[in-house]
Amino acid sequence: MMAKWLEYARIAGRQALRKRARLLLTALGIAIGVAAVVGIVSLGEGIRCQSVAMIEEQSDLALIEVTAGLHGGTIVPITASKTASIASLPHVQASAPVVKAAFATRQQTYLGVVGGRWDEMVAVFDPVLHQGRGYRAGSADAVIGRDLADQLLRYEGIRPGDTFGVLVREYGESGLPEDREGDLAAVGILQERDDALDTAVLMDAATVTALAGERDTYDAVYVRVDSPENVFSVVEGIEGLGLNANGAFEEIESVNNLMDVVILVLSSFTGISLVVGALMIVNTMIISVFERMREIGITMAVGASQSDVVGLILLECLYIGIIGGLIGDLMGIGFAAIINTVGRSLILDRLGANFAGFAEADITLITPQILAAGMLIAVLLSLLAGIYPALKAARLNPVEAIRQM
Amino acid sequence: MTAIVATERLTKRYGTTVTALDDVSIEIRRGEFAAIVGRSGSGKSTLMNILGCLDAPTSGSVAIGGRQVDYTDRSALVHLRRTAIGFVFQQFNLIPNLTAEENVEYPLLFNYRERGERTERARALLERVGLPERASHYPAELSGGEQQRVAIARALVHDPLIVLADEPTGNLDSKTSTDILELLRELNRDRQTTFVVVTHDRECESLFDRTIGMVDGRVVA
């Protein structure tokens, strides 16, 4: 059976090669469409790739903040067993379960307090102390972020080493605020790190709950993933526990979603040229069937079935598709190169200095998948375009077909 | 001798006015070399097309090799054309972009024969029809007589029960015509293949075992 189709392929190849100029021009029709799609998609992929690289450069991708999840209207809290499950997920390098609270100084400076173990904080955030030391478990020690420390120094004169009073606002049974008081010791100041820790107060969890009230769940877990590539698998694991995962990876997700839509829309517009190419194939094959009517009749007279005839014609279309796909992929690579050289300066002008990252890199990206898709589109469209002419050929009445001059 | 092809009250009408075949009952025996003669329009070609399973009768029946032909069963018709019937046409009808040898082996392609066997059979037949040195020539490079010899080889390559030749000499000069008819006769004798040859020249009637005359769609004695 296989051998039979190889023989058919040989015969169909001979037929296709009869009118080489026609074969080439028809293939070119589909090739131009493929080239346009390949070029546009490569531009989309290039921009996607650059945007993701920029996000990776500017943010800490391997950090995930886990918060309580919502499942069917009920809150899924972060219990001790959940934190243990998170810590044991593959690719999790370190995790820090924390409680959160809002304190204020006597002069009403807001203090966002994060309570956890210092060693875990170190493992997840890798903080560098600008001054002083880390906090000790069970103490009233506080390590203050750089921006907040500057503010406290400037407006309240609190320096590292000082002890300062804080208020925890709570509401009594009457609904009136009842502030609880406590004292914190500023034992250390973090170096500036351009993230949320710059305005936070880090301290021991037990001290936080002693002031702000006991609780049996955590407010968040900070997770350090071993490398950015594994973030999505860890996120999947976390979501599998019914919890929420937030972080810079979400930006990548949204860039990916956006680019998917952009690429889809752009390639469907350029895909119109593919329709034109396919119609050219339909036209060419109808003419070809018409010209060879007598041969088709003879082929049937000597024993070809209708499906043999359909197969022979579709094989010819397959050749057009393969040639069109090859030429189209090559032209697409060239098209992408042109966008890269000519289009880059134009695009950079429009985007401005924020997108300077695009300047050194290629803005188009040809992947094997794009080229394979180009080839697949060309072949499928050619076969699709061949169906009508092939059926037309197979339905010829052999007696009338042979009578044709 | 047994009948290899038998028709029973075969009728073919086109529309309501034209009757191409009218109540034709004939028998062709195994190994016979039969001629059908008649003017153009007498229904010879229609009969050939029906015998060759290319066309269906309006009424009546045909048996090939002792079996009734079911003209509604398309795949059965294809099978008969593939295995039991060989055609020789007036116009030679070779495929122009295939060589003589490829043209001869073309029917075997649809019979799923191995390439080696196809080539062997095609070569042997080309030699038998006197064209061994023309195997790699294309039809356009051959004379009319040579093309018809290639076509005859093609009609025999799958060892059919019967070869139907529709005016095989109609496009040839009289010398070549005689040669072709004599070749057919020799092949009939050597291979015991049954031949039905449509002709309108009565000069070579002596070559045939039997002559079936047709007038206005009817068989006349």
Keywords:
heterodimer; A: 405 residues; alpha+beta; 2 domains; six-stranded mixed barrel; two-stranded antiparallel ribbon; 13 helices; 12 strands; 58% helix; elongated; B: 221 residues; alpha/beta; Rossmann fold; six-stranded mixed beta sheet; five-stranded antiparallel beta sheet; 6 helices; globular; ABC transporter ATP-binding protein (chain B)
* Global morphology of chain B: globular
Beginning-to-end CA distance, first to last residue of chain B = 21 Å
Rounded Rg of chain A:
34 Å
Q: Which CATH class of the domain at 1-80 and 196-221 in chain B applies here?
A: Alpha Beta
The number of distinct helices of chain A, counting runs of at least 4 residues, comes to 13
Strand coverage percent of chain A: 15-25%
The overall pLDDT average of chain B reads: 90
The tally of domains of chain A stands at: 2
Report the sheet with the most strands of chain A, covering strand number, pairing sense and barrel closure.
Answer: 6 strands, mixed, barrel
Q: Identify the CATH architecture of the domain at 1-80 and 196-221 in chain B.
A: 3-Layer(aba) Sandwich
Number of helices of chain B: 6
Order of helices and strands of chain A: HHEEEHEEHEEHEEEHEHEHHHHHH
Give a count of the beta strands of chain A, DSSP E runs of length 2 or more. 12
Keywords (chain B): ATP-binding, Nucleotide-binding, Transport
Domain ABC transporter (chain B): 5-220
Protein name (chain B): ABC transporter ATP-binding protein
GO molecular function, one term (chain B): ATP binding
